[in-house]
Amino acid sequence: MKPLFLPFTCILFALLSCNNTISNKKIFRFNQVQNVESLDPAFAKNQNIMWHVHITYNRLIEYDEQMQVRPSLAKRWTISDDRLTYTFILRNDVYFQDNEVFAQGKGRKMTAADVAFSFNRIIDEKTASPGAWIFNERVDTLHPFVAIDDTTFQLKLVRPFNPMLGILSMQYCSVVPHEMVDKWGKDFRSHPCGTGPFRMQDWEEGAVITYRKNERYWEHDSNGVQLPYIDGIKVTQVDSKATEFLLFMQGDIDFMNGIDASFKDQVLSKKGVLKEEYAQRISLQKHAYLNVEYLGFLLDESKNPQKILLNKKLRQAINYGFDRKKLVTYLRNNIGVAANAGIIPISLPGYDSNMVKGYSYQPEPAKKLIEEVKAELGSIPSITLLSNDNYSDRCNFIASQLSNLGLEVKIEIMQPALLREQMSNSNASFFWATWIADYPDAESYLTMFYGKNTAPPNYTRFQNEAFDKLYEQCLVEADEKKKIELFQQMDKIIIEEAPCVPLFYDEVMHFLNKRISNWKTNSLNLLEIKEVKIE
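User: That's the sequence. What structure does it adopt?
Assistant: Structure tokens below.
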């Protein structure tokens, strides 16, 4: 296989490299398979865009490797007793990256007015930001964002909302200068300018994006050394994971996020570690990832043609009816953890497999439930499970095990965009889905089942009065211990009512060239390149 791909990849990479004028001495190189639509933080709606925004911009706060909140542009903050006003004291030594839009081409100092401008821009209908939801019906309608002075910024809410700090860590909340937006308008998408560790040098759309280090970056390490350590970044856009793997093994890129399925068994053992011949050449880092894969049932009786799925006992039987551990071991090479608790994943406060008992492979209880369904409703018709091709092997595994219990599950494969459309329009009765947290808070998962939410995120159209009351309470509960108890009560309702089938709690899987050191991984799977070192 390799000889067939090698000439093509070498030629292609040479073509992509021709416009790169920065030295390769200390350049971090990686590839993105999917096209990058925008570099504007207001449109940071997917991971492809988020990685670039994270490289170029900063936010008021950020999360460390342990998912603990820490200062960034804000040195410190306070929350009023009524939890409606957040006051942030900003750093006074942060400058926007040099750009011709500023006087003498030198980036000016960032102030609280820039934070207010950036946040107002998100909710401005003219911007049409897909991130407007983060503030909708949450912030004050008259003066939500106020610059008290150059280093004091206030955010005002209409009601307490516990996840607000998590919201402010999102890439949507990156701070941008009004001068760039005023000059470029919609073309700001391709002319990024922030306060972050790297500034964009060139973007050949669909081919390559290059970055130089920001020589005036404000952040230093614990020894007082200015970040970043490296000279720049080069991001290619070869739209094949298989070709990406070959580029990586040839040493043409330094990093891979995950691996093409066709090479998985070649590189990884069933225990999820590098095979010896690869361990000598590359490194692998794994970390809990705030991503849960699940099967969802549409519970809107008026729209679900597969009425049998409205039966709770059948949904519980499906939850009991297959081996999640085997799925993770044999189809994912032990990457991830079987979801034998609830929908809240490992690494988030609220996850506790001792307090919240989920489903495990128990064929006898599953058979008993199926017989009870048959006794109530007669024979059980075949069930159609919708998925995209990326997950067909897992769906077939589940269908095969359920067939041993007498349940016939047919798999229908469709394009990812069409599947999302079907889910959003309540046309998907039984579907495979993933949910990646927007911020490190269990609320980000529980919101999928809040009855007043439409889709997204409530693709199942789950409605439960007790759940809704607990959810509304968790948004305002000030006591952390009580809030976690509320999370767990909601998770128990999800398990009992079974609107979904949690499959596994995912893991970040990063492959690295041996020349890379000081790599840090986090549960949000953001690339922390500012502290990377290159041998």
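The two ends are 31 Å apart (CA to CA).
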